[in-house]
Amino acid sequence: MLAELGLTEDDWSQTPLAARTALTLLWQQNRMLQSRCAAYEAQVERLQVQVTELEKLRLEVAALRQRLGRNSGNSSQPPSSDPPYQRRARRQEASGRKRGGQPGHPGHGRRLVPVEKVDQVVELRPVSCRQCGSLLLGDDPRPLRRQICELPPAQAYLTEYRAHALTCLHCGELNTAAWPADSPAGSFGPRAQAVVAYLTGRLNLSQRDVTEALEVLHGLPLSLGSVSAVQKQVSAALAQPVETAQRFVAGQPHHHLDETGWFEQHRLQWLWVDATSQVTAFHLSPGRGKKQAQAILGSKFAGAVTTDRYNAYHWLPDERRQLCWAHLKRDFQAFAERAGQSAEIGQALLAEVKELFTHWYELRAEECDWPDFEQAVRPIQARVKQLLEQGTACDQVRTAGTCRQILKREAALWTFTRVEGLEPTNNTAERSLRRAVLWRRKSFGTQSAAGSQFVARILTAVTTLRQQGRDVLAWLTAACSAAAGSPTPCCLLPDTS
User: Which residue(s) pair with 174 in the sheet?
Assistant: First the structure.
């Protein structure tokens, strides 16, 4: 105590008793206050730790809520991943009218087929008058017509080839007849092969479903192994047309590029799509990076590409790359669903997107010309840039980060306004990949490299044929016939004649 008070033993002995008593009481009170202060400081430190932990938990809860609220409207998730209880947002404001056809709207019922294309005509005439019973004669020049379509039983047509072996009576040589040059190598003809390919590659039926469909609809028994064998035959028949289509796609000026996962023997591969206006090519690759994108586009690529914001495409010059505005709209929707400044910036950006596409649709409908479109978009560009710059300083970390990333590629937002014919969205590629995604979800991928090759080739053929409005089944049949020796070549390139 004396040391804390700065006194010696002599000083203390010379101090009056009353003063010593007062000093002792003050020292005791001071020690008590110091003890309380130390306890309070420790408590404050504990509370600060708790506040820090609570802040971390708050941020974690906010992140989890954002993940829970992710859907196809505010992220890159496909619509098929949306939960069934989620209600889709209206794409446009309600008009207030009742659902269905409006008064005065022309009907779109089933039209009657011309008489020359009808297989059977059944004439129905009344025999006697329903009032007086007199005999009725003659024809109605304009009878009531009603057509009923029916599917006839379609039984598979089975042909048996018998190759006889005959011995020459002159020299004793055994001679066996050769199989016809145009007969397929396996047990199924070109149209049967094409139907299997159509059911799997276009309708995404599983191999078990294919065997059931062919037996029920055509009385054609087919094993699972036969389905795989037929797919290999079709894949070989598609090899040359698909290679030609891929070379054609590489030389086009405008591309839509995208990729999705694909499993081969439970190993992750990547299915790439390179879509152009008339031909679409699919490629299966072990990777999803810059190297694979460059391999698909080619080393001498000089066209323009519409993509998402994935960094595998960052090697493309911004003046030849268009960022997908459908993806950007989802990003902006995510901004709007967050709190604080992020919500205000997101709503403002969504309004700019709506105005931008209003002008784009007018341009596509030829309601305005290109100079007017460029002039209308110019102020939108300035406002979008200003909003993104504001977003980099907002209170939401994820919003600020996304805004900074978009601003790094700002020139790629507006490439479609400088390159005529380039689309502002990557919907063309995403629509092409949708069928592959559904196929993957049902089949869980493929079990061999040959199966994966069939997937890429049949998707290339089917998607391209549908783009060009051609009969998919008829073309596949012709391709399988050509592989069996038919002189008629098959090509996936558009008819320019």
Answer: 167
Residue 136 contacts residue 127 (beta carbons within 8 Å): yes
**Residue 283: what pLDDT?**
94
Query: C-alpha 64: how far from its chain's center?
Result: 25
- Beta-carbon contacts of 457 under 8 Å, excluding residues fewer than 6 positions away, are 235, 238, 239, 242, 282
CA distance 248 to 55: 57
**Cα 214 vs. chain centroid, distance in angstroms?**
30
The pLDDT assigned to 88 comes to: 57
Spatial distance between the Cα atoms of 306 and 410, rounded to a whole number of angstroms: 14
Contacts of 84 by beta carbon, 8 Å cutoff, 6+ apart: none
- CA-nearest of 255, 260, 293, 331 to 76 is 331
Question: Which pTM was predicted?
Answer: 0.78
Which among 365, 370, 341, 335 has a CA at the least distance from the CA of 353? 335
Beta-sheet strands, E only, within 191-264:
254-264
Angstrom distance (rounded) from CA 20 to CA 11? 10
For residue 336, which of 289, 391, 380, 381 has the smallest C-alpha distance?
A: 391
Q: Report domain extents, the chain.
A: 1-48, 191-296+447-497
The tokens for 30 are 């001071």
pLDDT at 79: 64
pLDDT at residue 482, as a whole number:
87
Residues of the chain short of pLDDT 70, as ranges, are 1-12, 14, 20, 23, 66, 69-96, 100, 107, 496-497
Instruction: Please enumerate in sequence order all residues whose Cβ is within 8 A of that of 215, keeping only pairs 6 or more positions apart, or say none.
Output: 221, 222
Give strand pairing partners of 259: 272
Cα angle: 463, vertex 464, 466; to 5 degrees: 65
Using alpha carbons, select from 275, 266, 188, 183 the residue that is nearest to residue 233.
188
Closest CA to 117 of 149, 71, 143, 154: 149
Taken as a whole, the chain contains a residue count of 497
Looking at residue 56, what is its pLDDT? 84
Bridge partners (DSSP) listed for residue 167:
174
- Report the distance separating Cα 69 and Cα 86, nearest Å: 10
Compute φ and ψ for 88, nearest 5 degrees: -70, 140
